Amino acid sequence: MAEQVVTRTYTASIRNQQRVSDDLDALGFSASKLWNVGRWTCSRVWDEIGYIPEHNELTAYLKSHKRYGDLHSQSSQRVLQELAEAFNGWYGKRRNGDTNANPPGYRKHRDEHPRSTVTFKTKGFKLDTKYNRVRLSKGSNLKEYWSDFILCEYQMRPGVDLSTVENVQQVRIVWDGEEWELHFVCKVEIEVTESPGEKTVGIDLGINNFAALSYEDGYSELYPLNCLKQDDYYFSKRIARCDDSDSKQATRLNQTKSARRTYHFHTLSKHIVERCVDEGVGTIVVGDLSGIREGEKSGESKNWGKHGNLDLHSWAFDRFTSMLDYKAEMEGITVEQVSERDTSKSCSCCGRKRAANRVERGLYVCDKCDAVANADVNGAENIRQKVSPSLACDGGDRSNGWLAQPSTFLFNKETGAFAPQEQATS
After folding, report:
1. Closest by Cα among 266, 259, 382 to 325
2. 103-159: per-residue pLDDT in tens?
3. Would the N or C end of the chain have less CB density within 10 A of its end CB?
């Protein structure tokens, strides 16, 4: 065992949600407006001189803008820093020959009141761990004569106590699609073990099977979304029967649904890390889904169909990846994120790229080498090969039957754990 200082993000629910939601909405909306102002400024500079402003240049230029004062100065700086990073990421792809890469879009996505994440650094918040409260500073434009901060009462998940954390670096307010939650970014000291092995596994996250895993030595697993979809259907019907969507009953139902979803993600990430330890995996390769909500045109929302949109916007891929990352780190396993570009179109056996080969949602058939694979597993194997290439694509001989016949693990509500499909009970 070795001690290591790492960054951890702890999620907390807001107990006085109804009391503070309007103020938090105002901050989230302000962050979206500032992003859009910065987005327009970057686009104008790029069109005129072919240069992308760095975040400090963008901050200096927009510091006197009215929208900048809607947030605490450090929060506004963070919004513009994220924008500059997104533009630099786009430009890097463009420079490397990716002609289909899109610049970051405007924050609207058909939402009349977009709620962007707002980050509060050390001067923007005051934490009271004795009474589980945190004060979040408003911007100068949003301060009222009687209050210049928002007082949030929080509830940590079981097993987490912020009073034992020496260094809380940031607090973020994050809209999870239904309500606001708090993310506490902390520096903590942990004990880590040596890597369990040198093998790799690829993970493809999706809206049908939440996770598809492809192991280096020829083995694959699927983790369907059935349990979460059932919860979504059940709670949606219960909430629809409430007299008011803002009532205490509806709020409790939303909180219960969110808690169950978070528990599901924690259980799944823990299970996958345990499987990796058993299989001697030292590197987990995950597809980067940061642009999954953006369509072909900048700023447009990608249309996945009625049910697809529901699933996609309900499940927090980034939250799951964060949980997976810190659980893997404690076991000495590295988590790497790679682009998912073309992973669903390419054959993992011969490298042939053809979108039509994905004949159905769950089936991939290569018209060149006749390989038959589960489409999600094929994507996971392509993701894995971006870090650890397989000899199969270079003419090597390797059986691919496991691509079409993955093991399926289902969540058992009675035991609160994952088990192979044939062992799980309804």
Report:
1. 266
2. 888 887 555 668 899 999 999 999 999 999 999 999 888 776 557 899 999 999 888
3. C
**Do β-strands 219-224 and 281-288 pair in parallel, antiparallel, or remain unpaired?**
unpaired
The β-bridge relationship of strands 199-205 and 281-288 is parallel
HEC per residue, 221-290: EEEECHHHHHHHHHHHHHHHCCCCCCCHHHHHHHHHHHHHHHHHHHHHHHHHHHHHHHCCEEEEEEEECC
Using DSSP's 3-state secondary structure scheme, residue 328 falls into helix
DSSP assignment letter at 65: S
Measure the CA angle with vertex 128, ends 126 and 134; round to 5°.
55
**Burial class of residue 374 in the structure, from the number of CB atoms within 10 Å of its CB (0-12 exposed, 13-18 middle, 19+ buried):** buried
Helical H segments across 96-167, by residue range = none
Summarize pLDDT for 74-112 with one digit per residue, the tens. Answer: 999 999 999 998 888 787 777 777 777 788 888 875 556
Give the integer Cα–Cα distance in Å for 160 and 346: 43
Q: Taking every pair of C-alpha atoms in the chain, what is the biggest distance, in angstroms?
A: 74
**For residues 404 and 381, what is the distance between their CA atoms, to the nearest angstrom?**
12
Nearest to 104 by CA among 81, 72, 74, 137: 81
Residue carrying the six token digits 């500032």 = 34
Q: Say what the pTM is.
A: 0.66
The verdict on residue 425 lying in a domain is: no
What is the DSSP-derived secondary structure letter of residue 333? -
* CATH number of the CATH domain containing 327: 3.30.420.140
In a domain, 333, yes or no: yes
Stated as kind and residue range, the H or E segment containing 180 is: strand 180-192
Note whether 82 and 207 are same-domain residues: no
Looking at 166, 192, 218, the residue that finishes a domain is 192
Q: For the chain, what is the domain count?
A: 2
Q: What's the rounded Cα separation, in Å, for the pair 172 and 118?
A: 6
Structural domain harbouring 15: 2-192
- Residue 304, Cβ neighbours under 10 Å: how many? 15
CB atoms within 10 A of CB 253: 19
The reply to whether 426 falls in a domain is no
Residues 186 and 231 in one domain: no
